[in-house]
Amino acid sequence: LILDGVTYELPVLEGSEKEKAIDIAPLRDKSGYITLDYGFKNTGSTKSAITFLDGEEGILRYRGYPIEQLAEKSSFLEVAYLLIYGELPSQAELDQFTNTIKSHTLVHEDIRKILDGFPANAHPMGVLSSLVCSLTAFYPESITDRSKEQVDLNIVRLLAKMPTFAAWAFKNSMGHPVNYPKNKLDYCSNFLHMMFSLPVEGYEVDPVVSDALNKLLILHADHEQNCSTSTVRVVGSSKASLYSSVSAGINALWGPLHGGANQEVIEQLDAIKADGGNTQKWVEKAKDKNSGFRLMGFGHRVYKNFDPRAKIIKGACDQILNKLGVNDPVLNIAKELEEAALNDPYFIERKLYPNVDFYSGIIYRALGIPTDMFTVMFALGRLPGWIAQWKEMNEQKEPISRPRQIYVGATLRDYVDV
Ligand code: MLT
Prior knowledge:
418 residues; citrate synthase activity; Citrate synthase; tricarboxylic acid cycle; 3-stranded antiparallel beta sheet; globular; mainly alpha; Citrate_synth-like_lrg_a-sub
């Protein structure tokens, strides 16, 4: 790195040493070569104190707490509080946070009328992003009032209404009437109630299902600045409301390369099953460069060894399917594929390990959640991360985002009359 005429030799950092990479941040800030440019928001040049990832070591921490511990011990709202406010809440703080959220779960009836306007074949993600965006119109003070009290109110309102919107998007796709929130239930159970009560007469939320959902949402709660999260920060940097910014993030997540991945996994597993379930055949096909075939759910842009979330999800998947007595043959296919790949030099050399999307779809299906809703479930989980990132970006007073552009088009041309 050459800075002000002085050459600096930058160390190649290994493993946990990467945490020290922050030491060179002042150099990056000043350098014209590696630019700390919030406007461009390249992954290598943005700062955040929310989520730590080490792709070589397979480490994921929210605010310093390992994901394994949070998934084991916390509730989703506890993790939401941690991500958004930086500390785990005391019991009193958590109770207050939870109760405030419960007091905002209802949605204005005029928003329900917007829902009524969507055709039943509207994708639930389109419905979700539209309903979230409509909150800016229903609560215009979310743009004009930037006081801490108002921001906190916007945050709880969004956390509270998101499960209602998500369940209503599902109900719309089924052509069924909506269920209203039941505030005596916890966050996950209330969502399940809105999803599955009526037409199932006397539906009772199974605590096993609710616990499984709690874990899945925690595992998806943040993942540093990827496509959707950067989108939330970029849109928010124009001082757009939290609701508009998160709505934009939902649209970014909707794309098949981002949130749509677990849907692709389950469709592929189904196709392998329909083909007779010979996993070795598909492993060989994936290795054949000319086949154009790729095993979905293997490898990750960030994780080069394994995705720590995948390990937890695999364990949860076994547990949940056992407890619910669900026998989904694609689970065995998934396990066989994993086994075959993890022992095959081709996959080992390329560090292609199952990622978070590999098992999550199987769990969602066991819980009775249809494939079209998988991305919505991802959005529900990712919400606290988006909120935390939007808040951090505002608190850091980041300037409006504006990518640096290098013009590569035609040079000056004279207009010639024809
Ligand atoms: C995520 O959890 O957001 C995905 O793994 C995508 C990513 O972080 O790049």
